[in-house]
Every structure is written in structure tokens, then in C-alpha cells.
Design a protein that fits this description.
Layout lengths: L6 E7 L2 E6 L6 E2 L2 E2 L4 E9 L2 H7 L15 E8 L11 E4 L9 H4 L33 E4 L2 H4 L1 E2 L3 H6 L1 H4 L5 H11 L7 E5 L3 H12 L4 E6 L2 H8 L4 E4 L6 H9 L4 E6 L19 H9 E8 L14 H4 L7 H6 L3 E3 L9 H9 L5 H5 L1 E4 L4 H9 L5 E4 L7
Parallel strand pairs: 10-11, 10-13, 11-12, 13-14, 14-15, 16-17
Antiparallel strand pairs: 1-2, 3-4, 5-6, 5-8, 5-17, 6-7, 7-9
């Protein structure tokens, strides 16, 4: 089926991406045959904050990398060993690549599959140190282990009507939800969400879905705080001076929350008048300060082992100055790592299809073309309160 042109969003280094011609995908990776894989015509593919870390030069990503790990597509070719996924199926692709056969996959820990990345546990499409798999911000992409990985939408026409929400099942909706689940959010919880980017907004919406009594979102960008308020969140502007616990107390009547979700990660900045200064451990330290004794802290925000753009040598190797003794004294539990998307995506699909949540509205989806992707990256990097979703074949718009 190698008769289609293919283009993709390619990292150029120096904060730049371009849309270039790339090879049409094959059912292989190097010398490895992927008879268990499928080729997708990409219906939607999203720009993620994790992509921005690479584009900003804050990882060891090589130039020439085809970006994109948030993929929804239509199956156009199946490998010899694919049994249950068929040509024409409309599917959501978890950003985690998982074999379904290793110990971790069998335990549901698909974010740390042992067989898909020679360098370390866990793999993803179009991402640094994650196995070399080609990204999906493209016209076409190959997906391995298709029977295990893919979530087939039960009705393709119904799915197309809700595609702006369903496209978020590949990453940010499950990731935000996972952050809340691992922070122990449940009916009546008080919750603090650090960061009002797309994952933070998805986490805030997930906290409401889980029954939280009060969801407080902290950020430094007014448009993003406005977006959080649009679906019932309380907000704190972290650029303003003052003790954050005083501000929590003004909302809750209590200086601590039951659950804390870090949706910022390693490019965090100090609060107040120092908000232009990077402080990579500030959110983690705030979490231990602001979470009640016995509470839980979910950390879906990205932390890396190598950060060449860090301001001190320790942080360049992922070593952060945390007040861990405080968390220990308060009997906190902290949950880190990639979200195992497959653990949640079917249930969250149902929540979308049965109108229990309008996640596209919560994160403010904006559809763009593949050619508009570089501008989407620039706008997102500037703090736009939007989730940019690429529609490469104009199948949505």
C-alpha cells in the first residue's frame, strides 16, 4: 500500500518544527518485522506539552525526529498476524506502546512495557529515548501490537461526531484522570491541580467526574485560569505575591487539600515576584506542604533524566532539591510515571459517548491543519489556553 504521499511534523532543533515529506510507514521498525501492526490514516493527532519540552531543547531529542504521540486513526492496512482489528476500524491509539506479553503489560503497567524499547522500560511514538518509534503528527503512521494496543470505537459515525473529545483519549484525558486517581480523588474531595495547561484542565475535569467537592487550579496565565473557571474550578494566580496556603484557606477554610495533582513537571517556575525564575522542584515541595497528612500526590507532570537546558548541574541530570522529609513526616504517598492509558481509556470513552463529560470543551480544543502545526506549536508555547488538534486529511473540519 506504499502508494500514498506522507508528511509529518519534524523537529528541527532550536525551537523549530517543520512539516516535511517523510517515508510512508511500513510494518517494520528497522530490521524488526511488525506483522502484528497496522497502518493508520491519521484522523486527528494532538500537540502535547511533552512535545514542547523537546522542541524547546529541554531534552536530548535528536533533530529529524517525527513528533506526535496522541493519535486517532482509521485502519487502512493490517499485518499478517492481526486478528481482531479490521481495515476501516476507527481507533484510538494509547501513547504508550505495549507488547501485551511481558510481565508489566500482564500486570496492566503498559507505560513501562519491557519489550518495546531497548534503552529502558516504556515506549511512545515520536518521543526522545522512547524506542525510536515514528511519531503520528503525520498523514499516516504505523502502530504495532494492534490487537492489544488499539481501542476500537463501537460506532464510527457516532465517534466522528464526538471526535474532538475522543481524540483526547490517546493521552491527556487518561493522564489527567490517572493523576486524580493516584492522588486519591473521590466524592467530596478537595483537590489542588498545579498547572492549567491541557493536562491540568483534563485533570480538573476528571476530578469533577470523580466527585470532588472543590477543585482549585493554580497557574500563571490568566487565559488558562479563565478556562478552568469556565467549568466550575476555583483558581489561584501564582504570579501574585502572597502565601499560597492563605489563598487555599480563603477558598476552603482549610490550609491543606485532600489531594494534589502536579500537572506542571520539571519546567516549573517560582511563584510570586520570582515567577520568571525556574524552580524545578517547587511544585513537588508545594505538594508536600499543601497536602493533608495521609493525603496522596499524583504526578502526571513530566520529569526527565536528562535536561540540557536546566539552570544547575544537578537538575541537568534530573536531580532536584526536594524537601522529602516533610512528605515522609506527613505520611504522603507519591505516584509518578507515565499514565497506563489502557487502564482507563475504555471507561473514559463511555463517559464521552454517554455525555457524562465534555472534555473537548474543558480543554478548549482548536482544530488546525497539518500545515498549521508549526504555528500551533508557537501559540501553545506562548501559553494559549487551547488544545491544538491536527486534522491532516480534513476529515473533521
Amino acid at each position: 500500500m506504499n502508494n500514498h504521499a506522507n508528511r509529518g511534523v519534524v523537529y528541527q532543533g532550536n525551537g523549530t518544527v517543520k512539516v516535511n515529506a517523510i517515508p510512508f510507514p511500513e510494518l517494520s521498525l528497522g530490521k524488526r518485522q511488525c506483522h502484528h501492526g497496522v497502518i493508520l490514516k491519521v484522523v486527528t493527532t494532538n500537540i502535547c506539552g511533552s512535545d514542547q519540552h523537546m522542541v524547546r531543547g529541554r531534552t536530548t531529542a535528536p533533530t529529524g525526529l517525527v513528533l506526535g504521540h496522541e493519535i486517532t486513526g482509521e485502519v487502512i492496512e493490517c499485518g499478517r498476524d492481526v486478528e481482531f482489528i479490521k481495515v476501516g476500524d476507527l481507533v484510538s491509539v494509547p501513547f504508550n506502546i505495549a507488547c501485551g506479553r511481558c510481565r508489566n503489560c500482564k500486570e496492566g503497567k503498559t507505560g513501562i512495557c519491557l519489550n518495546v524499547n531497548p534503552a529502558r522500560p516504556g515506549a511512545a511514538y515520536g518521543y526522545v529515548d522512547m524506542g525510536g518509534w515514528v511519531g503520528g503528527q503525520a498523514d499516516y503512521v504505523m502502530v504495532p501490537y494492534a490487537d492489544f494496543n488499539l481501542l476500537k470505537f463501537p460506532d464510527a459515525d457516532q465517534a466522528r461526531e464526538k471526535i474532538q473529545s475522543l481524540t483526547l483519549l490517546s493521552d491527556i484525558f487518561p493522564t489527567g484522570y490517572h493523576g486524580c486517581v493516584t492522588a486519591g480523588v473521590g466524592p467530596g474531595s478537595t483537590v489542588y491541580i498545579a498547572g492549567a495547561g491541557p493536562v491540568g484542565l483534563a485533570a480538573a475535569a476528571s476530578a469533577h467526574l470523580l466527585g470532588a467537592a472543590c477543585v482549585i487550579v493554580g497557574d500563571m496565565i490568566e487565559d488558562r485560569l479563565n478556562q478552568a473557571r469556565s467549568f466550575g474550578c476555583e483558581t489561584i494566580d501564582l504570579k501574585e505575591d502572597g502565601d499560597i496556603q492563605d489563598k487555599i484557606e480563603a477558598i476552603l477554610g482549610d490550609r491543606e487539600v485532600d489531594a494534589f495533582v502536579d500537572c506542571v513537571g520539571f519546567e516549573a517556575h517560582a511563584c510570586g515576584c520570582n515567577h520568571h525564575q525556574e524552580a524545578p522542584a517547587v511544585v513537588l515541595n508545594s505538594a508536600m506542604q499543601m497536602t493533608r497528612a495521609g493525603g496522596q500526590i499524583g504526578i502526571p507532570g513530566l520529569y526527565v533524566t536528562e535536561d540540557p537546558g536546566a539552570q544547575d548541574d544537578a537538575a541537568k541530570h534530573g536531580s532536584l532539591s526536594m524537601r522529602f522529609g516533610l512528605g515522609w513526616a506527613k505520611s504522603h504517598s507519591l505516584h509518578t510515571g507515565q499514565c497506563p492509558v489502557m487502564k482507563y481509556h475504555r471507561a473514559l470513552m463511555q463517559a464521552i459517548l454517554f455525555d457524562k463529560i465534555d472534555i473537548a470543551k474543558a480543554v478548549n480544543v482548536q482544530m488546525i491543519s497539518l500545515d498549521e502545526a508549526p504555528q500551533g506549536y508557537a501559540d501553545f508555547d506562548g501559553g494559549a489556553a487551547k488544545k491544538f488538534v491536527i486534522d491532516p486529511h480534513k476529515m473533521v473540519s
